Structure formats: C-alpha cells, structure tokens
Amino acid sequence: MAQTIQSLDRGLKILNILGKSEKPLSLNEITAHFDIDRSSIFRLLGTLVQNNFVYQDSETKKYMLGFKIMELSGAFGEQTKIEKFLRPVLKYVSEKTMMNTHLAVLDGLEVVFIAVEQPRQNLSMHISVGTREPAFATALGKIFLAFTSENDLKNIILSVALKKYTANTITSRSEYQKHLQDIVRQKFAIDNEEYRKGIVCIATPVFNHRGAVEYSIGISGAKEQISPKIKEFISIIKEAGAEASRLLGMPSP
Under CATH, domain 80-247 is a member of which superfamily? Predict the structure, then answer.
C-alpha cells in the first residue's frame, strides 16, 4: 500500500466534505467528521484558506470551497479533450433538446459529472460539475457498466448494492444484467425515474481511439418534458455520442 502524508490526507478530506455539502459548514461541523482535536482542523483550514482552496465567510465564519478549486476545474477541462472536442457537442445537444446536458466519467461505482451545459429556458433541475451519482441507477452510469468486460460486469453485479431509490429502481440482479445487455445492443441507456422520482435521463457512450468507453453523454429533465419526445431525444443523443466518438478518434466499425 502506498505511503501517505497524514496532514495532506486530512486536508483533502476537508475538501471532499465541503464539496459534498449543500451549504457552508462551521468549524464544529467539519471537526465532527474527524477523530482529532478542533485546533488541528482549524490549522488545516487556515492553510487551505491561505492558499484559496477554501473560503471563509467573514461574517458567519463558515467555510466553503474556494476559487482555486474553480481554477483547477477549468484547467482540467482545458488539459483534457473536453473544451477542444466535446464542449461543442454538449452545447449542440442542449440547444436541440432544451434539456440539461452532461458529460460524465466513471469513478469506482459512481459517475462524476465533468462538464455540464444547461439551457437558458426550460431548466428543470440544477446539476453542477463534480456531482456524483450511483452508476447502477443512472443512465450515464449504466453506459459504463454495460460496456465493461464480461468478467468485470459479473463481479460488479455481485458486489454492488442495488439500493431502491424509487419505485422504478431495478433491484433484481438477473433483470439488471439483461437490462445492461439491452443497452449494449441499443447503444443508449434510459433512467426512467430510477434515481429521482419525476426525472428521466437518456445517455449514450463516447468511445476513444482504442474503442473503449471513455465518457458518457446524456440529458436529464422532468418526465413530462422528455417522455413525449423520447424517440427524438434518443436519436439526438446517439448522434452526439457518435460525433463525440469520431472526434476522439474512434476506429471505424
């Protein structure tokens, strides 16, 4: 196992805590996540604040992520293929569908949103870059699971806890395996209110130059907005995935 620096590990944990919180946190709220004294956490926060990774409100004294995080997020997009190749595709999908459009990667058993385009009109829900969602219950995540190797897929299905988020969440392992096989055949996935009640998502794979799924791209919105146009939206999403894959150098079939 790789050696770690304890103070750095704790500092990174603080950033994760703040990133997952929906509101600024007090020193006591952050300290509650650790088994060390309050003064040590205070010093760690002071270092993060000094380097702009964390911001402290001068009135409430509460902490939130700092502007350095946004700066690094932008640099990530520039250093990868997102801004050069994939951002125009995301914008096209968002404009054509008037739905939230997302690009995601797989991290363990979660999908992480690494680029988001939101329409100026018809905005039904707000999703930020960095949002994490369970792969098995979301269209973006099911794309990665469906296109993984057969052995890895068996291990995933056996190990993942198929938590029931809504009445529509698939919790039968045999049914779920067939569902993933259908996704491979159709080259798109649908989350039909399986993660959030009232929200429908459609996603498709983005293949890299080796023919492996590197990203998933998709839309999400209220059921009443997507369901009436679902065939049209599926077509737009699949075309976008094919174009994004072409831009990344996917080999011809």
Answer: GAF domain (3.30.450.40)
Give pLDDT tens digits for 64-76.
999 888 777 766 6
Alpha-carbon span 7 to 148, nearest angstrom: 36
Q: What's the rounded Cα separation, in Å, for the pair 42 and 12?
A: 14
Q: Which fold has domain 6-68?
A: Arc Repressor Mutant, subunit A (1.10.10)
Give the torsion sign (CA, 12, 17, 21, 25).
negative
Residue 172 identity: S
In the chain, DSSP assigns E strands to 54-56, 63-65, 100-107, 110-117, 132-134, 189-192, 199-207, 213-222
Cα dist from 3 to 10, 14, 127, 218, 232, whole Å: 14, 19, 35, 38, 51
Query: Are 11 and 65 a contacting pair, CB within 8 Å?
Result: no
| Total-model pTM | 0.70
pLDDT in tens, 107-120: 888 898 988 888 87
